[in-house]
Amino acid sequence: METRSSEPLPGTSDLFADECAAWRLLENAAHHLFPLYGYGELRTPIFERTEVFLHSIGDETDIVQKEMYTFEDRGGRSLTLRPEGTAGVMRALVNQGFSQGEEKRVYYLGPMFRGERPAAGRKRQFHQVGTECVGKIAPEIDVETIAMLIAYLSAVGIGPSHTQLRINSRGVAEDRIPVAEALREHFTNVTSSLCEDCQRRLTTNVWRILDCKIESCQPFINAAPSTTELLGQSSRDYFAEVCAGLDALGIAYHVDPRLVRGLDYYAHTVFEIVFDGIGAQNSIAGGGRYQILPPGATTPVDGVGFAAGMERLLLSRDQLGAAASPAEQVDVYLVSMGKAAMRQNLCLAAQLRSRGVSVLMDLEGRGMRAQMRAANKVNAPYTMILGESELQQGVILCKNMTTSEQVELPIPEAPANLAARLGRS
Ligand code: HAM
Question: Which residue has its alpha carbon closest to ligand 1 atom 10?
Fold first, then answer.
């Protein structure tokens, strides 16, 4: 489809102040909540060497096969815009000398890139908020991670009664061979009825067939043996402990033996949170326990974490009619008659801003009517008017735009007085 040259590319967006207010609500909740669980922020680069993603996400995944934005830089290196956060976090931790057995807790926020077909809730540049607890293996850490995700969703206005938590176990590496054999035996009987991708997956990564969304594959997927029941005893015990921990915390969940997730690094617990009512892209967050061998590491590192899609969180909030976040609010518009008044108002604006009051003012020397129109347009609760006679008397008029009440304030007292009226002092 042709787009105008001023339009953002398909699957990307410009976000103006009105929308940014809601984004900041999601960001602020993350900065507030995750440190309460001992997590510190980590900002990794937006592009990495391609190998950082290739092996950890999995050569056979849709992300690596079809969706990564990979390019060669001028030095002939293959680079990739990060399609997710976990692989870069692990690379960064290993680079800091981190190794298995220690524990490190980090959270991150920011843009990710996948070349998917754009749709409602599916973008090419999208944003994730996520956490990783790295270095230790214990079912309770998985439980705490899920509980923290649910607390985060509640903090942004998406309570548990509106979502469904689906969980499953992918077991440890040794379990995957017998499970894969059982699945291959089942699907081999119906090969010709499977979609092209699934026919390929039959030889490359048979688990991924369970994740196929193509309608014609669903009857065969539904008839497949339950992977959870085919896992070895220790994996099943681990999963039972995760379920018991969720029960103890009163967290409702649905065990879904078809849940495999689209990344290959998972081992043991996998989970997804679904919100109905935002269309087909209804998975608002996903995660699980994983094992990754980042480039430069000699032994694999274990971790557990999640990422929530921020666009989908905002769609869910809208669906719930969550109170629109306040857009950028201007507290006061300063009207100046004449150059000397404008200079005085520039000083006043600086003093007001230093008290946390947001200010707009006319800087073009327009007439009184034009300035009052501008004040009405920004919908500021107060307007302050400084004419020549006020300037001579050392006072400024302060008008409450809701009640039209007007008071005269001595100029030196005006910043503190207005800040108090706005509850900023
Ligand atoms: P993921 O399931 O690929 O997992 O992505 C997590 C979330 O990102 C999804 O549930 C969805 O809300 C959002 N998302 C993914 N793709 C798009 C898209 N094209 N447009 C809009 N939103 C999207 C991961 O990325 C793992 N790194 C999660 C994880 C962290 N596992 C362990 N630690």
Answer: 285
